[in-house]
Amino acid sequence: MSKAQGEKSEARTRLGRPRDGSIRRKVVEAAIECYAERGWSGFSFESVSIAAGVGRPALYRRWSGREELLIDAFRESTQTLQLPDHGNVAEDLTDLALAHRRLLVGARGRAGMRLFIEREAVAEVFRTIATEITAQRDRIILEVLERGRSRGELDSGVDLNIASQLLVGALMLDALVHERTTPQIRVTVTKTVETLMRGLNARPADAVSSERGSSPSARKR
After folding, report:
1. Are residues 82 and 177 in contact, defined by beta-carbon separation less than 8 angstroms?
2. What contacts 93, CB < 8 A, 6 or more positions away?
3. Which of 12, 51, 54, 146 has the least C-beta neighbours within 10 A?
4. Burial annotation 175-189 (CB, 10 A radius, 16+ → b, else e)
5. What is d(CA 98, CA 105) in angstroms, rounded to the nearest whole number?
6. Neighbouring residues of 171: CB distance < 8 A, sequence distance ≥ 6
């Protein structure tokens, strides 16, 4: 074979072979879809390779096992939450809540719900995702709430960890129960944050009860 023929053959080989990034993207997307639809019992290199249209050897070269593949699939399909700062806790929470609620839509959202349900069967995957992704989300929400409290927008006695859990729990429940359009999600998220803010600004129940039990003259003082 002449040098020119060799170069042409090499060029054809390069052109006909998908780029590594293309293969990885296909596999990651297929992995999330497969896990969302089939769960851990139906999640395998074979099922992912078929869905991705990629040979199994390509998967074995890149991932040591299905746990590692699923962890990478969650990492690469999760949009990192950004810390907003509008100078207003309600607006900041709304931005974060919208980003998180949108994450719960589609295959990525279904996969996340399934991971929570199957957390004992996929303990290593759940532990890693909870540490890297869930913890990052919770830290950002808490930072927004702490800034709001430092500005006097929230009652000083509010348990910010509980407030964060209430917000995330409401969003997850809404995603489980309702299939909403983008405009509907925005309306629901806005109402959820408004309701939470009313609770965060309210006085503790024991303070209200104490005031009700005191005499009119004591209340005036």
Report:
1. no
2. 141, 144, 145, 167, 193, 196, 197
3. 12
4. beeeebeeeebbebb
5. 11
6. 97, 100, 101, 104, 189, 192
CA 197 to chain CA centroid, nearest Å: 22
Write a three-state SS string for 15-27. Answer: HHCCCHHHHHHHH
How many Å apart are CA 93 and CA 85, to the nearest integer? 10
Cα 45 from Cα 202, distance rounded (Å): 52
Which residue from 150, 154, 170, 161 is spatially nearest to 97, judged by alpha carbons? Answer: 170
What are the b/e assignments for 135-170, b being 16+ CB within 10 Å? eebeebbeebbebbbeeebbeeebebeebbebbbeb
Distance CA 156, CA 146 (A): 10
Residue-wise pLDDT for 3-30, tens only, equals 455 444 444 434 444 456 789 999 999 9
What's this model's pTM, rounded to 2 decimal places? 0.74
The whole-angstrom separation of Cα 13 and Cα 60 is 21
Cα distance between residue 9 and residue 3, in whole Å: 10
pLDDT digits (tens, 9 = 90+) for 112-123: 999 999 999 999
In whole angstroms, give the CA distance from residue 66 to residue 41: 11
Per-residue burial over 111-131, b = 16 or more CB atoms within 10 Å of its CB, e = otherwise: bbebbeebeeebeebbebbee
